Structure formats: structure tokens, C-alpha cells
Amino acid sequence: MSNPLMTSCLLPTQVDILNTEAHNARLVEALSLLDGELKDKEAAIGKYESEVRRRTDEIEKKTREVDQLNKKLERIVAAQPGEVL
Q1: Shortest CA distance to 46 belongs to which of 38, 34, 35, 57?
Q2: Which of 18, 33, 57, 82 lies at a C-alpha separation of 20 to 30 Å from 76?
């Protein structure tokens, strides 16, 4: 036979264990959801960074084109006699 005193002492401990396990399960689930959100946001950041690099490359290319056209304009203006505007 089991001792009623011993059983009454063990019950709160068993309840604590079950509560702790349930809490841990909720934390694991929350962690899983947060990990999923983090991966989604990291993917979005990667896309944004790629877009920034692409646009930066376009800006640099257009800046070089403008610089070349400005030099060409300077040569044309320098070659023409007459008034300076």
C-alpha cells in the first residue's frame, strides 16, 4: 500500500513538473515561430541589399557617363572661339 503522506508530498512536485513541461513546450513553440519570422526577415533584408547594390551600380555607371559627357562638352566649348556663356 502507498503511504498517504508520501503521496500528498509528491503530488505538488508532480504538478510542478507537469506545469514546467507545459511551459517549456509553449516556449519551444514560441521559439519556432520567432525563428520562422527571423528567417523571413533575413530573406527580405537580403533582397533589399541586392536591390541597393544593383541601384548603386546603376548610379555609378550613370555618374561615369555624365563625367565623360561633361569632359566632352568642355573639349567642344574649349575648341570653339567666341563668348563664354
Answers
A1: 38
A2: 57
d(CA 16, CA 37): 31
pLDDT at 62 (0 to 100):
98
The residues near 56 (Cβ < 8 Å, ≥ 6 apart) are none
Q: How many residues are there in the chain?
A: 85
Task: Write the DSSP assignment of 29-49 as a string of letters.
Answer: HHHHHHHHHHHHHHHHHHHHH
Task: Give the integer Cα–Cα distance in Å for 62 and 57.
Answer: 9
Whether the pLDDT of residue 85 is over 60: the answer is no
| Tens digit of each residue's pLDDT (9 = 90 or more) over 25-45 | 999 999 999 999 999 999 999
Residue entry with cell 503511504: 3
Q: Which three cell numbers stand for residue 43?
A: 530573406
CA dihedral 6, 8, 13, 15 (to 10 degrees): 140
